[in-house]
């Protein structure tokens, strides 16, 4: 068995990789060391070591790679461009937040072979179907466990392998399975026999039971049996007949069964583990929402201090941080600009030790990566601390580098009564900043009331303002405090996103234009949401609001974005570089609608006369609470948390509901001792959901520890409205939000009206 097929191995580029090459690994201008790299026999693992290090070597899998960039396309390689020409350089980009690998080959031909070879392997890994993926996974384990590389595995090696795979099985049972698979009675398993062993090991009784319930002869599901399963259990209604035919065609491995128009247990399990058997509605993965409504009617995936890869005080500022955020579908990025010592504006977190990058380099990066993940508009939120001269230079860079991509004029020449739509703004970058006067051209050269957005944090974080909106005399105080000059050139580039100070909902209702928007710190926004939820929802139906983390979060931690979405805030800026619950929720909300970074708000939040308060969901028109019942059946091949030999996880599952305050809830199963391979819970968790349109459901798997905090194993978060009822698999993600196949949960979900 060769999971990669011989085809790819005969490829001349892949052959070069398998023969091995000496490539320089570059970490900085001064750290450039030769390492020997080669592709292992499995056609999937890249192995490398230094010439001098004795036994030490490192490996990574092609499945961890997202792309290969050619030439000087990273900050590190740009810094050594004079020393090494572009045709020797390339960058391996990993999924998630893992750092890139910058490499320099000895010849252009060698660089080309690695660039093309790795691209082919990435493509191959991405286009594998479920069966190939499983074969690959089995093959990987076989390679890992066959310590003496004789292509066979004796019982001792198998015992070791079971531990590596998170299986705790008594000796007797393991030996029984081993003997069943060892058909030649040689005391060892070759790869084919090992596949058989793996099959017996992963036989899933809980799937077999469901299969038995619908199969007349216990051997196969006939077309009408599969159809009734899809109708009764998977709630598919009318389309069941058509779908049953398609599934047999797509998922059934046995030709014989296919000819009979039937599905075997293997095919049934294949279907349940596929995308269609997943918890996420396939029709919501694609672009399914109306994109022609005003910008204020959408939640917009947004990043805070986008230039930081680490914390807010000493962190490294990096162009890579922009690339990562944009690749994740982020549609609002932030730039903090300051006067640079040599006349060029720089970006960093002012008054801290974070490193600096050139403003113009960020704009070039934006130009290149803005529309790779999504065609819909990107908002560039400018936190401007520059003097007039360097502001004019920023305006010049924006115009020259972005060209037509930068929106600099009204779409139809008319002063808008409402914001344009994502559809109309496709492929455009919008500048959000201060503006002299309005779109109606009232000219006032000096801007007053000019506290920079983030400087207002001092007030909010100290909660120095009493609750509610500040009285008028406070505002006049503010005016005296600061008068800053704004360059006409920069001001002219602001069209639909003019930053203004927030003077309360009443003031906004009577004075504000739809293109004016305010930034509020999390604490101020949270207070307004609690005290005046309905006003906030109505305000956000017409105008954009941007929320940013408190200045006290110097560790780049995040606040819970759900509280802000509950009142319709569109631009809820998070530290994308920080993994955890908050980014899981952000990834979860924006996983729908083709991950385009825009999600249409529920209809009761889009009407400026809307009477919705997240504190009192039952008062809105059309209130229909739902009951959500989740039977957590089993887990499959959960990753090991602790790499210590012999340690095996004790998993439990927690389901969390994030939504309006009344919907916030969590329930968990008990833990299963020593089984990360195929734990069985069979426990049901129940929830009542008052505002389903705003709820997110997060599944978390943890390793139970009675003495200390549980360790995180994996999670998956999705909008309640994207859940498919029935028997479903949940494909788990790592802390970083990247896939960890084949780890999954098997659940049965039912959603019903609360009567």
From TrEMBL:
State the Gene Ontology terms under molecular function.
Answer: calcium ion binding; phosphatidylinositol phospholipase C activity; phosphatidylinositol-4,5-bisphosphate phospholipase C activity
Binding-site residues for substrate, renumbered to this chain: 432, 434, 519, 546
Q: Which UniProt keywords apply?
A: Calcium, Cytoplasm, Endoplasmic reticulum, Glycoprotein, Hydrolase, Lipid degradation, Lipid metabolism, Membrane, Metal-binding, Nucleus, Repeat, Transducer
Binding-site positions, Ca(2+) 4: 648, 650, 674
GO BP: intracellular signal transduction; lipid catabolic process
Q: Where does Ca(2+) 5 bind?
A: 703-705
Q: Which residues form the EF-hand domain?
A: 133-168, 169-204
Boundaries of each PI-PLC Y-box domain copy?
Answer: 490-606
Enumerate the residues binding Ca(2+) 3. Answer: 305, 334, 336, 383
- Cofactor: how bound: Binds 3 Ca(2+) ions per subunit. Two of the Ca(2+) ions are bound to the C2 domain.
The positions flagged as glycosylation sites are: 184
What membrane topology term does the record carry? Answer: Peripheral membrane protein
- Report domain C2 positions: 606-734
Q: Which SUPFAM superfamilies match?
A: C2 domain (Calcium/lipid-binding domain, CaLB), EF-hand, PH domain-like, PLC-like phosphodiesterases
UniProt catalytic activity: a 1,2-diacyl-sn-glycero-3-phospho-(1D-myo-inositol) + H2O = 1D-myo-inositol 1-phosphate + a 1,2-diacyl-sn-glycerol + H(+); a 1,2-diacyl-sn-glycero-3-phospho-(1D-myo-inositol-4,5-bisphosphate) + H2O = 1D-myo-inositol 1,4,5-trisphosphate + a 1,2-diacyl-sn-glycerol + H(+)
Location (main, coarse) = cytoplasm
Q: Where is the composition biased (Acidic residues)?
A: 449-463
The cellular location(s) given in this protein's UniProt record come to: Cytoplasm; Endoplasmic reticulum; Membrane; Nucleus
The record's listing under SMART domains reads: C2, EFh, PH, PLCXc, PLCYc
Q: Kindly give the InterPro entries that the UniProt entry links to this protein.
A: C2_dom, C2_domain_sf, EF-hand-dom_pair, EF_Hand_1_Ca_BS, EF_hand_dom, PH-like_dom_sf, PH_domain, PI-PLC_fam
Protein name from the UniProt record? Phosphoinositide phospholipase C
